[in-house]
Amino acid sequence: MNIYSSVFLQLLCLIFSCYFCQSLLRQNCQVLEKNYYAQFMDLKFDTCEGFEEFNFSIAVHCDHVENLHLALKDAPLETDWLCLTKYCGMTMETGVFSRFTRLNALYIETRDVELQPGTFSGLPQLTTLWIKADVMSNNITFHKDTFFGLNSLQELKISYIKLSAFNISLLNHLHLLDNLILENNNILYLSEVTASLGIFKNLKKLSVVSNWIRKLRTADCLTSQNPTSYGQFVNFNISHLDLSASQLTITEPKSLCNFPHLERFTADSTGIAIEDLYKSGIKTIKTISLQNAGFDKFQICASASHFKSEELLLMFSSIHKINTFGGSCKNIKKLNLSGNYLDNTGVKQMQKLPDLLELDLSNNNLESLELCNNESAPMLKLVCLNASFNYLLRLQKGQFACLKELKSLSLESNKINHIADFAFDGLDQLQLLNLQHNNIFRIGEFTFSNLFMVRHLNLYENVVKKFHFDAFRNVLLEDIKLTYTFDHDFSWWKNIRRSLRNISVKTNVLHLTSDVLDEFPFLESLQLDSPDIALSCASFAEAKELHLKNTIEFTNIDARWSPFASFTKLEKLYYSVHPQDVSNSSTIINSLKDISSLKFLYLHNIDSIIKYNQININNIFQRLVHLKVLHLKNAGIERLDSKDVFSDLQDLEFLIIENQNMQEVESIVFDSMPNLKYIYFLQTTFPCSCNFNGFLSWLESNTRVSAIGFYNQKCLIEDISMNFRFFLNSNCRSDLDFILFVLSFLCTLLFMCLSLFHESIHWYILYIVYIVKCWLNHRLQHKDKYEYDAFVSYNTNDELWVTEQLLLNLEQKGPPFFKVCIHNRDFEVGRDIVENIMDSIYSSRWTVCIITHNYLQSNWCSLEMRMATYKLLTESKESLILIFLDKISREELQYYHRLTKLLNKKTYLDWPDHENGQQLFWARLRKIIAKSGRNLK
Ligand SMILES: *[C@@H]1O[C@H](CO)[C@@H](O)[C@H](O)[C@H]1NC(C)=O
Ligand SMILES: *[C@@H]1O[C@H](CO)[C@@H](O)[C@H](O)[C@H]1NC(C)=O
Ligand SMILES: *[C@@H]1O[C@H](CO)[C@@H](O)[C@H](O)[C@H]1NC(C)=O
Ligand SMILES: *[C@@H]1O[C@H](CO)[C@@H](O)[C@H](O)[C@H]1NC(C)=O
Ligand SMILES: *[C@@H]1O[C@H](CO)[C@@H](O)[C@H](O)[C@H]1NC(C)=O
Ligand SMILES: *[C@@H]1O[C@H](CO)[C@@H](O)[C@H](O)[C@H]1NC(C)=O
């Protein structure tokens, strides 16, 4: 079959989104196995809206599934995480998931669906269930026992299902439920939820978020019949209450009486006023979260002392000042003020917060950080301080002297260009110092002095030009990240090399080759972003991971050795080239085979290297007998057509091909990899060609290897992209398949035609019915007398001419005085209009059609004319007169019925412009009408 016509057919099919196209595609699910993905890269299903955060070992994601049994047929039985997006079946049957006895987390996003009793039965380990309905169509039917059997469920989230359509008492099967999240359920009052809360004995966390609660009413406070030790109010023993994202503007006294003691109260993005909460019935709150709230003068200490709070999370709340008035802040341990408008911190305020352990001041307007500036300032207990993303310029001596307990200090993304000697003095416990993305250009002898405990130092994205050779004396760094420009004196490495475990360096030239650098004994991971790297031989004996970014020259100082000779235990290699680098150095690619310990290999943008150096790809992966994962991203490997390409990869389990135009894939390539489990094509294009038929058949017939995501793989034909499996199935399969395809296509086409042309067919049928009916009527009655001389068919726009000219000339100027039928005067009121038309035509001797542009475009007029034409044909008497009131060209007429043909045979008159002509016109018309003898009743 001609390929273009088949494409045309399929395009048509796609355009009309016919149903059966989709049913040709069987597998809509993808599988992730954590032990492959988590270590090597962060592939994830980002359409599951936060559900990815739940732990899994084998995750399955199915999109657009209609038949759940079919779709889940191939999913591993060990699946413990399942996400169904856009599920479009009508029902979910009893026990539909019960094969997956290890299922731990289940997310269902669906439209109108019926959840049958016991849908979730047979899932003894399910702890988390999220059900989200479509915003637009969310008629989800629950049964009394839909949730039967969920004996381990701890977290249930229900989104976009109206509470009115959903009865909380349905959840009485969930004995262990600990966390109930209701989101977007049109809930107006909290008591709609709390009234049914008694059925949950173990519920600790309740979230009613993005709902319509504006008012927390006294009436929402539930009192119990038999008073308890907590007084007259029911205590649900809820520890976490979340009312975020509602317009909470009114809080009446006692409205939250059922929640006296909270671990955490969250009202982010609500507009609630903390003072109103004082009388709400809540007595203690350990953690208060009021983000996005828009307070200016939040009284931190007053609120904290009222609720005996330990943590205040006040992010993005327009706070200008740390207000410590009105109470004691003694209990506060954590204060998060990220994303506010603070422009200073005061020593005095810090003294009011003596027990504070964590302080987050990131994303404010701080130009200086005054915590200890007063010589006699007392010691603070702070352990974590974050002042990143501010405008700090300089760090002064003694600036942190009162922070003896501090372990983590982040000053990332400020404008720091000067660090005074001994600026970090006093930070005796500091382990992590983050100075990324500042303007630091010099590291002096005393910059980091006395930082005895620092293990992690981040100097990435600075402009360091000069390190003092003793800069790291007494510092036992484990991780260092830094960006610097080439410095001939690299002896500063010598102080830290024996403790380093991770190095991440970005520089223009990196030479780690001198005698003093002969060994980095504990180094595990090396991330190098540099075009020119030279290493010595014995340096990195323990290194397991190496990242090379933008590297062109990669050499060993002893030219006899491969550059990888220093890495005898390397397991992971990432090599990424800048796409603009047209490199003629192929050292790295050609040396891969020397790293026989390699387990993970990632190659990115090496396409130009392969092309310019004419590397034979059959040689690249030789001797990598321990490789388990191979990730090729834009690697220029377009043809997998020989069994030699991967012939040594006996251990390979996972192959990812990303961002690549594949020209050829033969299944023979995979024969040499007995342990292969997954092939993942990501953003890969194939040409639409039957050459891949063998590969597809191999994939479908083999149970060992799964090709993840292949069901929605696209192929390209003349720049048109279409579904690859669909293409192969419909073009490259046997004749029977093809015939079935054509048959079903024709059915679809016929159906489309019917629906598309429904309008015109409707008219046609109506017309035939009436004609038959009238013709019978008139024949049977042997009518040959007429009621009218003429029936005038015209468009309402031409009514003026008809009433003022035509009627005048025919009915009033005589003799003879003709009897004329026009619809708005002579039609019988209340009768069907088509019957009226038929009757008028058949009871008039002549039918006169007043043809104008409007007339031709009107449905009624065209019906009248067709019927008149029909009468003309059946009666073989002359009965039709055409009057052209507008000038209409023959070309234009071609589009209308068989009008042109009629013109050749029948009487027609043109309406003249001038008066003499008009006189003649009327005379002629009268003559024609009178001609055939007047036989009126
Ligand atoms: C995640 O799950 C795996 C296996 O199911 C388990 O071994 C691991 O401890 C879990 N991790 C977390 C953080 O819960
Ligand atoms: C919702 O679905 C049920 C059956 O699933 C049906 O009986 C009911 O009429 C539907 N309601 C609406 C409003 O569509
Ligand atoms: C919920 O179900 C219970 C018992 O099945 C019933 O008493 C109650 O009226 C129902 N509530 C709503 C809002 O339908
Ligand atoms: C409330 O919950 C706590 C645990 O969070 C438990 O120790 C206590 O017994 C519960 N109280 C009641 C009245 O259920
Ligand atoms: C403070 O809040 C910000 C923004 O939500 C968050 O990124 C940060 O981790 C929080 N800080 C602490 C110490 O929890
Ligand atoms: C330092 O703090 C003490 C006690 O808080 C105070 O009395 C003194 O005036 C402060 N000195 C300066 C220079 O601010």
Automatic annotation (TrEMBL):
Residue ranges occupied by any TIR domain in the UniProt entry: 786-929
InterPro entries per record: Leu-rich_rpt, Leu-rich_rpt_typical-subtyp, LRR_dom_sf, TIR_dom, Toll_tir_struct_dom_sf
Bilayer disposition of the protein: Single-pass type I membrane protein
GO molecular function, one term: signaling receptor activity
Biological process according to GO: inflammatory response; innate immune response; signal transduction
Main location: membrane
Pfam families linked: LRR_8, TIR
UniProt cross-references to SMART domains, sorted A to Z: LRR_TYP, TIR
Signal sequence, start to end: 1-23
Subcellular location per the Swiss-Prot or TrEMBL entry: Membrane
PROSITE patterns assigned to the protein according to its UniProt record, in alphabetical order: LRR, TIR
Gene Ontology, cellular component aspect: plasma membrane
Record field: transmembrane: 738-757
Coiled coil: none
UniProt keyword annotations, A-Z: Glycoprotein, Immunity, Inflammatory response, Innate immunity, Leucine-rich repeat, Membrane, Receptor, Repeat, Signal, Transmembrane, Transmembrane helix
UniProt similarity note: Belongs to the Toll-like receptor family.
Protein name: Toll-like receptor 13 isoform X2
Organism for this UniProt entry: Aquarana catesbeiana (American bullfrog)
